Amino acid sequence: MMKKMLATLASGSILALLTAASANAQNVDWSKALGHYPNLTLSVMSETDPYIDAIKATKDGFTPLTGAKVAVDGYGYDALHNKELLGCSQNDKSYDVMLIDGIWLGEFVEASCVDSINDRIKKDEQIVAWDDFTSQGAGQATWEGVRYCLPVAIYYELLFYRTDLFAQAHKEAPKTFAELTDTAKFFTNNPDFPGVYGYAMNNARGAAAGQQFFEWIFNAGGIPWKSNYIGSKDPYADQTPMFNSPEGVALVQLFKDMLRYEPPGAEGYAWDERANAFAAGKLAMINDWSVRAQIANDPKTSKIAGKFASALMASRDGKPVPPIGGWVMCINSHSDHKDAAWDFMKWFASKEVHKQYALAGGTPSRLSTITDADVQAKAPWTKTIFEAQKTAWTEVRPRHPLTFQLIDTLGVEVNKAIIGELTPKAAMDEANAKITEMLKSGGLLK
Q1: Domain limits at 85?
Q2: Contact 212, 415 (CB under 8 A)
Q3: Same-domain check for residues 352 and 420
Q4: Does the residue 285 lie in any domain?
């Protein structure tokens, strides 16, 4: 049975008060703060989301300070999860630092794959500046009250929309589900906007559709499981699934209905297809993680660079609960170079270097970086991120040891509803039954 999780931080009520203090320069003397590691190459394992390029662009600053080189290898989402867990089971020490999805943390902790960094943070409090991370980012790096990782690549899901098309149509960014549907319908098959579809969603069977449900359910007025409501002191106290609630069924019906305003083949869209279609100019608007805005903003790869803006995502009643996600950086529990790994992590996550990383295209996780004028000038959507973190909820997705399997199972049933293989009600009844049995078998539900 999973231990009771300590209360997670609230959704950002004190963050504005911390911002001014967080922005102060650290003035770290790195010659004293870091060790010396000649002839060492630290190995970092990461997902291939766009933030990896920013890590690669920033990492080499560590070498002249310590003598250690840093090598970064990237893998796809499922492949990274499986490779990291397999390596852990085999006591693999070939990687020193692992980036993991924040929702995998419970699984990785239970499997003894990552080390607690509580004591290390206490020794380096000035550098780490933990309270400068958004509260949800800090929550993604924490499990059962223990800090295991640093939240270096935290995402918020936002609405992105084409400013050129919206200006021509005299439209504003939608705030409610009804407005979202009407706006998507307006732009689809409209002779004034040839080749443009209104929207695209993460519909692909498995993890993509499963995660989408969690990202939207609070905005649909529902909850994913019984004790997981906004402000819950113990979100994991009762994990009775609520996927087939009226709100859950209505949400999946919305996913199905929106398909009529999406490009052909969108029932198979996942993260890359959704982002690439927007960058190619095929969509009037899209919901996407903040890290992927770089894809649309790069004039080398995008037809809409400089022609889009961001807003908080739509919700049923116009009161959004922005989804939180992203990647946390952890020490491989089997590494032979843990001190060097920590030195790299605290250096990379420091305010000074985190700003460099954000300017290189990384997604900012620190309040001081999110509110930095240089960062906002280069990535204007960071202004929306600042608004998003005020009402986001850390536990929007499960983070316990069965998370990966649970989300995949849910996503299979959600996709069946989207493509018409099952009705939304039948699909969510099936998902509820399968996940209930899964949780009972795993000892997470009585």
Answers
A1: 15-155+325-380
A2: no
A3: no
A4: yes
**Other CB atoms within 10 A of residue 391 CB:** 16
Q: What is the pTM of this model?
A: 0.91
Q: Are residues 180 and 264 in the same domain?
A: yes
pLDDT of residue 11: 37
Amino acid at 16: A
pLDDT, mean over the chain: 94
Interatomic CA distance for residues 35 and 123, integer angstroms:
14
- Amino acid symbol at 101: D
Q: What is the pLDDT of residues 239-263, one digit of tens each?
A: 999 999 999 999 999 999 999 999 9
Read off the pLDDT of residues 278-290 as tens digits, 9 standing for 90 and up: 999 999 999 999 9
pLDDT in tens, 133-183: 999 999 999 999 999 999 999 999 999 999 999 999 999 999 999 999 999
Summarize pLDDT for 24-36 with one digit per residue, the tens: 457 899 999 999 9
State how far the alpha carbon of 371 is from the alpha carbons of 223, 241, 445, in Å. 31, 38, 41
What pLDDT does residue 22 have?
40
Residues shown for the chain: 446
Number of domains composing the chain: 2
Q: Which residues pair with 153 in a beta bridge?
A: 327
Please tell me whether residues 106 and 230 are part of one structural domain.
no
Residues 178 and 146 in one domain: no
Residue carrying the six token digits 């491989």: 332
Instruction: Specify the CATH number for the domain of residue 277.
Output: 3.40.190.10
Res 27: pLDDT: 86
Residue with tokens 């795993």: 442
Strand partners, 133: 366
- Asked whether residue 9 is domain-assigned, the answer is no
Q: What is the CA radius of gyration of the chain?
A: 21
- Residues 431 and 270: their CA atoms lie apart, in Å, by 20
Q: Which residues pair with 158 in a beta bridge?
A: 288
Angle between helices 424-441 and 403-418 (to 10 degrees): 170
